Amino acid sequence: MKYIKTAQTEQNNQATEVESIVKGIIEDIKTNGDEALKKYEVKFGKSDRAFRVSEEEIENCLNTIDPEQKALIDTVVERISAFAETQYKHLTPFETQFGDGITMGQRIVPIETVGAYIPGGRFPLLSSGPMVVAPAKVAGAKRIVACSPANYKGGIHPAVLYGLIKAGATDIFAIGGAQAIAAMANGTESVPPVDMIAGPGNMFVAEAKKQVFGKVGIDLIAGPSEVLVFTDESAKPGYIAADLLAQSEHDPFAKAVLVTTSEDIANESMKEVERLLGTFAEDSPAHQSWENMGEVILVDSIAEGIDYCNENANEHLHLHLTDSRSYVDQLHNYGSLFIGEDSSVVFSDKVSGTNHTLPTNKAARYTGGLWVGSYLKVVTHQEITGEGTQFLAKHATEQSNLEGLEGHKLSAQVRIK
C-alpha cells in the first residue's frame, strides 16, 4: 500500500474548549430555562426572536415557496418515508411458548417524544429535516420537537420549514446550536423535554449530544462528512473526482479518500479534482477540505483494498469496481454502501430514500446510521403459569442459594408448591 496524497496529521483540535463551553450552556439552561436560552440565542445565534415558530409565521413563510420547490420536498419526504415504512414492516413482534406454562415475547414500541435537530448551514439543505423527522413519524412518535437555527431573515428557511411540516414535526422552534440540544434534553418554559434527540450538527451540537446522553437517548455522534471511493483500473477519473468533491464541500474538515488498484487512475483523478476545484467558488469548503484532509492511496490488490475499507469504516463507501456487486459480501464496516459508479452518494444525500445521518470516525464498526428503528424500543414480556412456574421457581431457588441472594431465593421459593 502506498500513500500518494496524505491528510494533514495536525488538526485544529478544540475539543477541550468546546467541552467546557457546552457544559456551561447545558447547566445554565437546566437551571435558568428560557432566560438562559435567550441569552445564548442572542450570543451565538444572533437571534432575539420568539422561540416557537407560530402558525401565522408558518403560513406566511410557506406562501413564499414556489410549487416546484414544494414538489421536490414532497418527493424527498415520500421516498424517505417509504423506505422507513419498509424497514418498519421487517421488524417483527412475537409471543411464543418456551415450555409448558412459559410464554415470552417482544413488542415494538415507539419512543413517545423525539427531538429533531436540523442544522442551518451555509445553504438550506432540503433533505435534512425529512431525514430526521420522517422516520420518527413512521415509527409512531406522538410528539416530534424540531429545532433549527434562525439564520434566514430572522427565522428558519421556508424550504426547511416546509420539509419539517411535511415530514411530521409537531412543534418547531427557531433555536440552534448546543443551546437547542440543552433545551430539548432538559425542557424550558417554552421547549418541551424529549425522550431522545437525533440529527446532525457542528462540533458544539455533537458535544452537547454527548453530554446529555443518559438523560435522553441520542442517535449517534456524526460528522464531519467522509467518503471513501474504491476503484480499479476500469473507473472514470471524472466520476471519481466529482464524487470526492461532493462530500468535500460539506465542511473544511470533511474527508474524501480515494483507494485504487491503479496508479494511472490515482494520478488522473487527482488532476481532475484540481481542474474541477478551479470551477468552485473561492469560499467553498471543498478547497480546504481536499487540500488538508483528502487522501489518495494505491493498494496492491482488490483484497488489500477491501481490508482497508473494513478497517477504516467510513461513513460513505462507494465502489467504482468492475462487477462491484460481487464484493458486497466481503465489506462489513460502512455507514452506507454505494454499489457501482452510477450509485452516487449525492442520491442518498438528497432523495433516494436511505438516511444520510450516518456514523463517522470509524463508528461504523459498531453501528449503522439513523433509521426507523432508532425511534423504536424492542421491549420483552413474559407470562409464567402452572408447570412453568414450578420449573423456573425450583431452578431460581437453587441458583439464588448458590449466589447467596436471600431475597431472590425467597421470591422464587414462595411459589413452589
TrEMBL record:
GO aspect biological process, one term: L-histidine biosynthetic process
The keyword Zinc is assigned to this record: yes
Annotated binding of Zn(2+), by residue: 247, 250, 349, 408
Domain of life: Bacteria
Sample GO molecular function, one term: NAD binding
Keywords, comma-separated and alphabetical: Metal-binding, NAD, Oxidoreductase, Zinc
Cited InterPro entries: Ald_DH/histidinol_DH (IPR016161), Histidinol_DH_CS (IPR001692), Histidinol_DH_monofunct (IPR022695), Hstdl_DH (IPR012131)
Active site positions, chain numbering: 315 (proton acceptor), 316 (proton acceptor)
Positions bound to NAD(+): 117, 179, 202
Cofactor binding note of this UniProt entry: Binds 1 zinc ion per subunit.
Binding site for substrate: 225, 247, 250, 316, 349, 403, 408
Gene Ontology CC entries for this record: cytosol
Cofactor(s) this protein cannot do without: Zn(2+)
Pfam families linked: Histidinol_dh (PF00815)
Protein name: Histidinol dehydrogenase/sulfopropanediol 3-dehydrogenase
